[in-house]
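Weekly structure sync, notes
Attendees: PL, DS, HV (note-taker this week)

Item 1: propanoyl-CoA C-acyltransferase
DS walked through the input record. Source organism listed as Candidatus Neomicrothrix parvicella RN1. Sequence as pasted into the shared doc:
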Amino acid sequence: MHVIDDMAGDTVANVGPGGTTLSKHNERVFVIGVGMSKFEKPGAREGWDYPQMVKESGTKALEDAGIGYDRIEQVHAGYVYGDSTCGERAVYELGMTGIPITNVNNNCSTGSTALYLSVEAIRGGRADCVMAVGFEKMEKGSLKIGAEDREQPLMKHMMALGELYEFAMPPAPYMFGAAGREHMEKYGSTPERFAKIGEKNHRHSANNPYAQFQDVYTLQEILDAKMVYPLLTRLQCSPTSDGSGAAVLASEEFVEANDLADQAIEIVGQTIVTDLASTFTAGTAAALAGYDMTKEAGRQVFEQSGLGIDDFQVIELHDCFSTNELLTYEAFGLAAEGEGHKLIDNDDTTYGGRWVVNPSGGLISKGHPLGATGLAQCSELVWQLRGTADACQVDDVSAALQHNIGLGGAAVVTAYQRADR
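Item 1 (cont.): predicted structure, written out as tokens:
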């Protein structure tokens, strides 16, 4: 960026890449288009590589916004597995206009981090129309450890957790499963309560054509499924998945100039919170699994938006394992600490309850292609707020909340409202 001076020496404009005049600080940011691919088990679609995934989701998002790729000024492309310029290669399927494209990796919160960076670009006046894309092409089976010649990012977390619960593999179900066991020991929740979350989310996904799984299971089938970690059965765990999601964001000026107010959804609060000192000093499995990050991120977003948890009707949250959904209930204040299981008993988090949590089926059943998850959550909530979520639609949605977490760690929370609210 540089500043242009006129002949009298007065500053007249900030200029960005390509000579684009930068707008002043933008107070409001809107999602004007979303799109996603169907999530699939790894390798299910022959010849469907990450460039094809992004072409699919990105084209849908542009069509939804009613604009061409030539209107996009920046792209933030999120993925966890792949080489360093996969973002450029993927986005080139949409166009090659020389604009900045950044590659984003923030573990399982990667998609929402790409969304966050896109919002920040607009708020800061760097651009008026930005795209966030997220994608993942995954291997079958449990997540594997990366390079073995250096410390693993979660080693500090796992060593601390090993002092509380005996170490087990794979790491992810161990960390979130231990947090669930801790909740049972401290507050009296039971395996059946966690299994009910799995049952709910599989039932919700039956209505979602984008979901990896659309099978409905009984509570007993959830409980009887293969045990992954004591407490967590396979049907309470998110699967590895292939897929992509995308969102087009714009400033208020862009929305008004292009007559997009009827479809625009405002982001009224958003933050990223990384690990706090309490992650390691609290001495709990819940803190090591991100509880404190989530709680603080929620607090910040409620303050930014002026909304409380009771003002939201629908929530897409990071149920990588059923235990984390229950912990997030308490972190956000849907229930007091130690009482999240009461929401499950009362059916307070499904259709007809106080909130509908994960109407898409969540990560457990919709699938979890790491880089795409946050943008799939964004897509679902935009559809909910527009009233176009079809069989997944929740009644009378005026505000929606998104939660995406990656251990190691970052929690991204986003609040949405219709522009006309």
